[in-house]
Amino acid sequence: MRAARLLTINRLELVEIADPTPAPGEVVVALEAAALNHRDVWIKQGQYAGLKFPVTPGSDGAGVVAAIGTGVDADWLGREVIINPGLAWGPDGRVQSTQFNILGLPRDGTLAERVAVPFGQLAPKPSHLSWVEAAALPLAGLTAWRSVVTRGQVRAGESVLITGIGGGVALYALQFAVALGAEVWVTSSAAEKIDRAMALGARGGFDYGQTDWAADAAEAAGLFDVIIDSAAGDGFDHLIELAAPGGRIVFFGATRGNPPGLEMRKVFWRQLSLLGTTMGSSDDFGAMTRFVVEHGLRPVISEVFPLDRCAEAFALMERGAQCGKIVVQIR
Q1: pTM beyond cutoff 0.90
Q2: Does 119 reside within a domain?
Q3: What number is the average pLDDT over the span 133-160?
């Protein structure tokens, strides 16, 4: 089969490798489409823990079950599925186990014609989604769901700020929060991304490249009950300032590094909750997919590339020029 393989750091090639064979309790999914996440770029650049080469990257995928291992019900054969990329979460829904890992490293991922996964990682493909849309859902949708619902506990009527709109997780967080009945605002340095967010239901947005953006946000929207962030860094103090008393700040990344300092007095005096999160449990994944079906939500797709142009898909994400998910069409 064809697969996009990372042979070493920054060396991505389309190669022929053997088809995977399902172990007991596993299935092989013939992939129709896969999607990129920032994790794939960090692995390619050698900036991720536990690197090993060669490896097939890719955590997101959708396709048809083509083979099953022993112990798997034959009814799975031929089913259209999406894949939960979070492996070995464990029994505690509050936190992942020490064995938790993500499809695409160390285990070969979805940027290939076929992938083997435990059958417990499968969920039915939402019938209202195309293959491209379905492939774009799993990792970012799961991360956003846990941020907004499981950890953030966003409720109808609350005011929500989502930073860095344009990335896959942030856009899903926007869609989920709007569907829950929240009033949602966003930040971005690109006016066109704010416009796209408003078309999806955001009330408005703020350019975080402007020094006074936080003051503008407070004037326009007031303080926020929930803030969803993945940047941290030296802008985190603005989020503390913008959080309403009793507010929750949920963060699923720190792309700008650690905050240089935290206004701890404001945190405890305002009764703020700082909530870290990553990925999600199998229960989170099931709840997220059901919500997507119930509300007819569709992923925002930035661009689609064929498998033999996978390097271009990576280059687009490395430039940060996308608004929505970057998808690789396998078939």
Answers
A1: yes
A2: yes
A3: 98
